[in-house]
Structures are given as structure tokens and as C-alpha cells.
Amino acid sequence: MSNVSVSNVREFNTVPDGNPKVESPLAWSYQQHPAPRASGQAGIVLREKALLGHLVLRGGAIVLDEAVRATLGMSLPAKPNALEHDDSGERSIQWLSPDEWLVIVPGGEEFKLERALRQVLGDAHYSIVNASGGQTVLTLSGDNAREVLMKSTSYDVHPNAFPVGKGVTTVFAKATVVLRRPSETHWELVVRRSFADYCYRWLLDASAEYGIDTQ
Amino acid sequence: MTQSNRIAAGGRVDRSQVLEFTFNGQRYQGFKGDTLASALLANGVNIVNRSFKYSRARGIVAAGSEEPNAVVQLGARDDTQVPNVRATQQGLYSGLVARSTNGWPNVQRDVMSWVGRLGGGFMPPGFYYKTFMAPASMWMTYEKYIRMGAGLGRAPTESDPDIYDHMHHHCDVMVIGAGPAGLAAALSAARAGARVILCDEQEEMGGSLLDSRETLDGVSAVRWVEQALSELAGMETVTLLPRTTANGYHDHNFVTLHERRTEHLADTAREAGFPGESRARLHRVRAAQVVLASGTHERPLVYANNDLPGNMLAGAISTYIRRYAVVPGQSLVLSTSNDHAYRAALDWKEAGRKVVAIVDARANPDGDLVRQARDSGIRVITGSAVIEARGNQRVTGARISAIDLERFVVIGKVEELECDTIASSGGYSPVIHLSSHTGTRPVWNEELLGFVPGKVKGMHAAGGVAGHYALSETLTDGARAGRQAALESGFNNAPDIVLPATRARRDAPACALYQVPHEKSALRAPKQFVDLQNDVTAAGIEVATREGFESIEHVKRYTALGFGTDQGKLGNINGMAIAARCLDRSIPEVGTTVFRPNYTPVTFGAIVGRHCGELFDPERYTALHQWHIENGAEFEDVGQWKRPWYFPRTVNGKKETMHEAVNRECLAVREGVGILDASTLGKIDIQGPDAREFLGRVYTNKWAQLAPGRVRYGLMCKDDGMLMDDGTTSCLGDNHFLMTTTTGGAAGVLEWLELWHQTEWPELQVYFNSVTDHWATMTVTGPDARKLLSELTDLDLDRENFKFMDWRDATVAEVPARIFRISFTGELAFEINVQANYAMHVWKKLFEHGEKYNLTPYGTETMHVLRAEKGLIIVGQDTDGSVTPEDLGMQWAIGYDKPFPWIGKRALSRPDTRRKDRKQFVGLKPKDPSVVLEEGAQIVFDGKQSIPMDMKGHVTSSYYSASLKHGFALAVVMGGHERMGQTVYIPMTDGTMHEAEIVSPVFIDPKGERQHV
Amino acid sequence: MFYIFCPYCKEHREEEEFHARGQAHLMRPSDPDNTSDEEWGDYLFFRNNPRGIHHEMWVHSVGCRKFFNITRNTVTYDILETYPMGEQPTITAATPDVRHEQGVQVADGGWQTVGARSENKALNEETSS
């Protein structure tokens, strides 16, 4: 157990040392609603990037920028709706609001990162919240990915308006998601755990006419 | 039946593809490229409907969306029925089945038409209500038969086999209408680089060019349309949406489009060869700029019997002949006020049929088309008009006369001409419906004799709708509008667009003619229809003005002019002109009513899209949902969450009722141990040096002394002093708290905290973030809870080391867990929080070890009973936004002496919140122990008073208690805190009366000993 | 459906991302305990309902979660400006003529290209602080 009190905030590593069974937010959905086998080339490819480490950083941009440079070797995107990746592409920071950023790292790194950030940040006013159990990442690719998004969100997903390196929090069907574009070919949806099944079923339905590949 | 009205050559139909269809049970043939309307006319079908009010025989009048009569019921099967389809907009397909929407028992012999002949034939506005008034009790009987004769179709009685969906778009320039102006606009905007969407409601793009007599660059107009469309289709930035009606124009250039995707091909998408695809799609377009190129509607003239089958719009006749190769009759009389309508007579004559005469209201018409008509030998009668159509089920003749427009009288002798078709044209009305949707008022243009769109930000009216009727002007104006729209959305390098050359045609000015005078007054003459769909006559409008309805809005509502699915497409201007004449005012003085969305009917399916059935609303699941399903839970909706309601067991092959299951679950908690999935509770992480100060301001109670490791229950009020939420908040560190909220209140409370922080106290250093989904919460509660949990945790659960209202970090089943010793049941309880991805592992481990303790899962119903036995409130059930903490008897949770004037404090000293007779929270014990009072039932103090009784309170929660073995309730009662021990009465709607005693709301363990063990 | 410029996200977003939160610039009395019942009642319950220029508070609830203000014409539904908390409107009912046309606020982050050139894509690529 690694329960450390830095300053006046309680840190808590929610990931066990041992190996108890772990289930991603979509574990049950995959089992319950297997995608119909696509005939021919599927226009949509859907994957879950399960069990990643998600941290929400709050605070002033300048202070947090120094801290993430020191710990992650990345700069903090200060521009609204910007999404930055490290060279490996496995770690990202996304602007959520003028004082809020979403950091996604490989699963298991989040607690170490949180502690390192707290050590760098010291007495500054900030907050770090671990959201790893509360959300998951879906990736969407394929020839018809943009059409499926157009059926699902009122946000403009045309490449002119949504270039690579952008991410927004917006409405998806009747849920809220973080929609991001890490590369030319892939979209990412950061979905809250409790809405994951609904979003997944929505995507299956919206993709039906193009064919969908989920595994 | 043969297609007797089909011409051998020409038109845009494909004669090699013969399509069979059925109308009113009769089989017909048409061609690929026909609309249902053109195919019906080709087959010589005269009567397509009975009218709404008078049940008069009606035929096809128009060729587009303005058609008022040919509104049909579509669908071969009961589950594919679609009402309210315009035959003119319905593409013909093989196997199409349609019926008239009116007419009982059928359109040929209609029973209701006798009603239409009552009282000398004129039914004033309000006829049915005025006539069938007495006796009042009989109205329901009359109505049944009146309704059978009226109506505009029926809804399907079985589930629709098709699906409908939505698609969102953003574009620089949205062009509505793909006629000459729209095409020119789309080309010039697209060439400038703008993202363009071009939609058109017809089966084919091209608008008036598809039936034009003119040439562009020396080739037929149709050829130019093909070139333009092929250029647009080749551009990546352009989206072409044919068969798509712009139905609504909303705030900030938001346009809704209704695309018919398979309904022109077959009865269902599957039969059309597109299984699983949507039948219709609603496009939601956010456009930077809109080019409105919706063109014009021709105005019919208002003369006697102008509704007989065989009366048609002049332009529609040209469309049917030139586009569909259908001549809808043998001999034609044309009545017109303008040059353009002469096309109908020329086209008719070229098709080889007889033009009896053109009757022109103008004294000296001399335009190019007039000369052409005269040269071809057509008789042109000037200064005259058709004043009355003759015939029974079809026009057999036209009565014509010279007219004096100034004095509105017939002059000279009436002549009767034999014919079977009368075409009329009173000019052209710009289609301003969409611009009206935005709230802008149309502007009268005296030169055009019509309304043009008012100014709308970001909208460019182009072509016909802007009053440019000549083809060369329409093209130029369209190109200008497209270029301007692109410019205003940031594309300032628009290349010059070279427009095709057109032949100049000289048109003489039109004259203003709406209603045609008759020898008799409007009231005595045969009916002169203004709004064919709603059966509004010139006499009806005259009567309305005479009865004192002077505002056009009132005239509309009294007569039904422009109502419903028609939205006044043909009748509005004529109606206003008649009202203006009767009121002796000008048309702009009378003004116009405005049009509403939708422009044409949209099926509910398209509006709903995929938000139906299993996707109607998000269903939020906890990490343990799968277990709940596998263990037979019945679910309850709490907000969007699906929560287990109770877990019925099957005993001896019989499934427990909810009552049985809840009794069992309650006793298990009181006597052994139960477990609840409490993951849905809202959880907010609060960090910052001012977190504690902030809590003191938003909660009514004190937070200054709460030490790390401790938990406190708090009440949250709005500034009016009324309770809005409650929950526990734990001190995790001096600058770190975890707040819990009610399940339904989670999002609202987080926004509430942000509201106060961002708008009132930005100087406080604190951040709030939701962690609701991150944690899964399991409540283990009951006398055996400690024994069970101690088997799985490394935490010392001793009552001295882990007290009531403490929390500790620990592990449970090897998983890091945060355990809270708080209780919502009144029993010993531990709330275990683990990261949600590990929840199922921990939950299952608890059951593995819980078997020997008979660990019982329970749902929200048992939770409600247990907390109510303990007198614990549920915000939103026992409170309703008018209850203060004091009303609840929770003075102990109010820190009146806190230094900061916390939210709600000031309001608690207002006279109203100090009243002694406020409704106060109490318990109720029914005198009859078997009675479970109804939630929501009213409470009175005197059971013998007469009705209406003096209501003094109401029951907020009520259950049967398996532990107490009697029913019990929570309630709010006026002055209830001072009325302990008194008897109150609960009268029920069936006349029975329950008696109950006011008692403390805490029914079990008032000293709290059980939860402290 | 409004199209609202969020002064924090620097973009226009669909109305469904926002919640309207009533009249803007309401001041909670600084010393509630010494405020008369009438003054407190005014603060709690009484709101303006003008025809024309109105200042409203909205929150970008599905988005950055920030509150901000809108100057809106309640007749035409034009949004004349949006501005962050703590700032004052530049357009009021007293402004002699409406100086701002709707659409003046464009995405200054260069993200949204409806209303801008696609060549501005270069702008979109400089994403760092």
C-alpha cells in the first residue's frame, strides 16, 4: 500500500499490488452485444484502449506547465482544445478548460506521475484527480468514421475544423464525451464508465450501414 | 386502364420502365420518373380526394410541394402507413399503394358531401360547432361521424419496420433550392472554395429549368443543369442532397433538412434494396451563410367553383406536359393576369390538344409570349377572366366575362366556353416560408404584387424568392448571392462566374388580380375557394371581417386560412387580398400571417431519429451491473441510472413478489447482513487550501473542526433557505475532501459548487471534480457486517479504532479500498469504495465469504424502507423545494453562529420561514397496522368536515415494515412538530378514510445504538 | 438552437452544450444578515424581462464547465457578445446603435474554419503553449 500524505492532500493508489481480476468499462458490453460480422471490408473499426491511467490536472497554466515538463517531458497545451502527445504517442495531455487538463498515460503509471507532480508542485494551488476507473478510451477508424461521428455529435468533424491535435468535450448522442483526433486515421472518444455501454451500443447502431469490426 | 393522357414523346420519364401501382384499390401503370401525381393524371384520374370540410370532389392542382388536394395515405401494409404525403412529391415505384385521406365510404360517392350542401351550401366559419350544438350531450355522437368524414390520414397501428436517423453538418454556404438561382449560387460559392450544401425538395435537381421552354448557351436548359450538377458533384467540398426538403430555418442559421432516402423506391428500405438503412434522414445543418433560392409559387385565381377537378395552376400544366409528358385534359381555357402563364397554353397546343381560349384580365397585353400565342392562332380574350367553372365531378365549361377591377364588378355579357380544364394564374408568390421561420416579417413589394423575405442575418435571398423572375436575372442574382455568401464566410477570392447566355424575353407588366368578381355577391355565388386544403372560401373571409375580425391573425384563426400542413402556400396572399378589399385597406396594411416550421410534413420517425427503443435515453450502469442481471434483479430508473430495485428469489418454483422480496431483504439487514450497490451516489473530489471554508459556505452546518479521517453529514440549501441536496463529506486531508451527493443530484451539485466559486467567491482557492464513475461503492450493513468484512480486510474494524463516522484507507480482497463507517440503514454499516475496474472482484469475494452469513443483496426499495424506519430523508421524495432544514427538525445541522453568511441562512429568518404553521416533517403510524398509506395522499385534521376539506399536509414516504410488523409513513404536516400524539385523517379518492397518529419520524432505534456497535 | 461563442473555448458551440442560468450581474448582498427582507426578496425572486438587449448568464456545461455572460437581443435572438465572468458588457440597452454584428467573434484559436480559410490549417498546427 502506498498511502502518502503530501502537503494536506490524501494520495491513494487504487491499483492493487497483486493480480485480482480487473474489468474494463466495456468488458460486459463486448460480451452482451457482440458486433454483427461485417460482410466484406468494415467501414468502421472500433477498439477500446482499456485500463489506461487518467489524471485530471487543475491549476494555473504556468505552474502546471513547469511540472509536466519536469515529470513527463511534455509541455502543457495552453491553447484551447489542443491535444499533445509525447514521442511514443502513449502519453497525452489535453486542454479541457482554462484551468483543467486531461493527462492519459499507460495504465499503472498514473500514481507515480501523480506523486511526482505533487512533489514538483509543492505548495502551489492545484488539484490532481485520478479518474482512471471512471473513464475509458474508444478508438474509431475506418473509411466511414467521419460519417458515424456526424450521426452522433453536433460538433464539426470536418478535417478543416477538426485537424489532428485537437480535442473537445462535446455531446455524443445523448451523452457527453471527450472527442479527440490523435492522428489522420484515428479518432478517440473518452467516455465515462457509466455511459460506456450506451455509447458502444450507439456506435454499433450508427455503424451498421457501413459494417463494423470490434475485435 | 391505359395512360390516356400520356404523350408519345418527350418528357423526362423512362417509358421502358413501366411501374404498376394502386390508388384507392384500382391498379394503374406509370413510368420511372413519374411522381404519383403525374402518373394519376396520365391515367386520367380526376378525383383524388374529398375536401376537408365540405367533402367536395378534388383533383390535382399543382405539381410541387404546394399541392393542397392530392394529400394521400401511403403504404402497402399496415406497418408502413404514412399519412399526409403529397402525391406531387412522391416518386412512383413499382408496387406503390396509396389511398385518398378523405372520403367515406370513398371519394367517388361521399356521404359527407350532403353536409356540404346544407343551408344553401355555405358553411360559415365555426359551422360544425354552431350547427351541432344542441343537445350538448349529442356532440360526441355527431363528432364520431364528422371525424370519419374529415381528417388528413391516419397513423399506422403497427410498429414501423424502417429506421430513421439524423446527421449533423457544418458548412460555409447552405443553398436551399436547386433551380437556376440555387445552382448558380452553389457554383459560385463552391468555386470560391466554400463548403457548400445544396438541397432540393424535388425528385430531380433543376427546378424550373426542368420544364423551361428556354435555352442556355443555345442548348436546352436541362443540359445546362446536368453540366452544373456534374461539376458540383465532383467537388470534395460540396454535398448534394436531392429529394431533401429544407423544412425549418431556426436561430443563427440552423437549418433542418428532411431527406427521403428510400421512400421513393419501395414501401420499406429492405424492399428498396437498402436493408438496415434509414428510410428518411433529418440533417441538422449549421451554416455560416444561407442562400435562400426557394423560388416562387404560382397563385391561383379565386373564382366560383375553382375547386372542381380540372382547375389547375397554369405552371403545373407546363410541368406535367414538359417534364412528365402528361397532358391532363383535352381542351383548355387559361385565365391569367400575366404573361408567363401563357406557356401553359403554348405547351398544351404543342402537345396536340385544344386551347379554347386565353382569358387575360389585362386590357392590352403585348409581351412576347402573348404575341406567340396569337400568332399560333389561339383566341386571346382581354380585359376578362373566368368567373365560374361549370361541371359536376370534372370541369365541363368556363363562364367568362369582362371585369372591372377598380369597382370589382362583372361588366358586359357572360360567355360560356366548353372545356375540361381551366388553368389559372394570378401571378407568383415568392416562397418566403423559411425566412419567416426565423421571426423576420416579410416585406410587401408592390411591383411584384407579393411579399419578399425580410432581412435575416447571414441569409441571402436569390432568384425568384427575391423577386427576380426572368431567367437571366435569376441566374445573375443566384451567382451574386453565392459569391456574396462565400465572401461573408471568409472566401474573398471568388472567381468571376460566366453565366450561360439566355434569350431575352419581353414580358408586359402583370395586373393585380386575386378574387375574380361574379355576377352574384360572394355569399350567393358558387363557392370561391381561397384555401383548398382547409376549405376556406372568399365568403368565409368576408364573413369573418364582417363579424369583426380585423387583424389578419384573427381572420386566419377564425377561418383556418393557411393552417396545418398546407401553411398557406397557395391561399395566403389571396386571403389577405380579400380581407384587405373587405376592410378597405391595402394588402401591406392588412399584413401577413407568418409561416411556421415545418414547411412540409415530417414523419415523427425522422424527428426522433435513432433516439428510440433501446437508444431512447442513455442507460447508465454501475460496474456491478452484470452481476445484478445474472442474479435476477428488477431494475428501477434513478435519473439515467439503472439501479437494482429488489432481488426476487424463486422459492418452490414461485417468484417472490416485490413485497415478499423487500420484507426478506429488510429482515436480512436488520438481523444478519445485507449488501447494496451504492455506486450511483454522486462523488465530488474537492482540493485546495480554501476547501474547508467553501464547505462552510455551501453547507448549513459547521466544517471548521472536521479532522482528517472523519465524515460528516451535511445539508445544502439554496439561498431561499430550501433544502436542495444532502450527503456526507469526508475530510481526506486538511485541504482535501470527498463530498457525496444524491444519485440524481450529482451533476446539479457539482454545477452549483462551480457556480458559487466562479461567480461569487473566485478568490477562494479550491477545485471540484467529479469522481462518481471512478469509484464503485458497496455498502455492507447489518449486525454481521463487521464479522464478514474482517475476513477480507487488513483494517482493524474494532469499534474503538474505527468509530461511527470514521473513514480509513485499507485493502479489501487485496484491492486498495477506502472504507467509510457511515450508515443509511440505522445498522452497523461499512461503505467500501474501490476503483470501479476492480469492483466486480471485490463484490464477488464478499459473496464468497458472505455465504455463511447469508449475505443478502438488496435494492433501492429495501434501502428506502430501512432509511425511512430510521427517519432519514430522501431529498426530492420527502422534500420538494419548499422544505427548510428546520421544517425537517434538523436544527442540529444548522450553524447559525458560523461567521460567514452561508447559502440559505438569511432566508431562514424571513417571516415566512419562521411561521409556526409550516409543513413539518413527522412520522405517521396508521391506526390499522395493516394499512400502508398512499404516498402523496393529503392529510386533514377533521375527518368529518365536508368537501372540499382543509388540507394540512401530505404523505411523502410510506411502506410496510417487516421489522415493526405494521405500516408506517413519513409526512409533512402543518405545525406537525407541536402535534405529536395527535390523530390525523387521510381521505382517499374511493371514499375511505384512514386514521393515523403523528409520531416521531424515527421508528427504529431512536437512540442510534445499533449503528454505533 | 443558438450557436454560442464560448469565451473560454474560443469557439462557437451548439446550444445543447450549454445551460442558461438566468439574468447576469446579479449581486448577492454582501451583508445578508443586515439586509432587509424586501431587499433579500428582490435579490432572490425578482428578475428583468426586457424586450431587446438582455444580459444573461450561461454555463458551458458540456465543455469547459465555465460560467460566462451573453448580451442577447430578446427580439431577434441575436447574440451580440459573450464575455467572461467579472467583465462588463460593451453593449447595453443604452448603447446608441448596435456596433457589433453577430459573427464578429471568430475562433481566434484558428480551429474552426467555417468562417475562415482552410489555408489557415497551418495555424492549427502550432498547438503548444
Describe this protein with a few key phrases.
heterotrimer; A: 215 residues; alpha+beta; Gyrase A, domain 2; six-stranded mixed beta sheet; 5 helices; 31% strand; globular; disordered N terminus; B: 1013 residues; Ubiquitin-like (UB roll); FAD/NAD(P)-binding domain; seven-stranded mixed beta sheet; 24 helices; 51 strands; elongated
Description:
The complex is a heterotrimer of chains A (215), B (1013) and C (129). Chain A has one domain: Gyrase A, domain 2. In chain A, 22% of the residues lie in helices and 31% in strands. Chain A contains 5 helices and 13 strands. In chain A, a hairpin with a 2-residue loop joins strand 10 and strand 11. Chain A is globular, with a radius of gyration of 18 Å. Among the domains of chain B are: 161 residues, 2Fe-2S iron-sulphur cluster binding domain, sarcosine oxidase, alpha subunit, N-terminal domain (Ubiquitin-like (UB roll), Roll), CATH 3.10.20; 193 residues, FAD/NAD(P)-binding domain (3-Layer(bba) Sandwich), CATH 3.50.50; 125 residues, FAD/NAD(P)-binding domain, CATH 3.50.50.60; 64 residues, Arc Repressor Mutant, subunit A. The termini of chain B are far apart. With 129 residues, chain C is α+β, with helices and mostly antiparallel strands. Chain C has a single domain, classed as 2-Layer Sandwich (Folate-binding fold). Chain C is built from 2 helices and 6 strands; from the N terminus they run E-E-E-H-E-E-E-H. In chain C, strands 3-4-5-6 form a 4-stranded antiparallel β-sheet, with no helix packed on it. The relative contact order of chain C is 0.18. Chains A and B meet through strand 2, helix 1, strand 4, strand 8 and helix 5 of A and strand 8, strand 15, strand 40, strand 43 and helix 22 of B. Chain B: It comes from Vreelandella populi. Chain B: Keywords: Aminotransferase, Oxidoreductase, Transferase. Chain B: This is Sarcosine oxidase subunit alpha family protein.
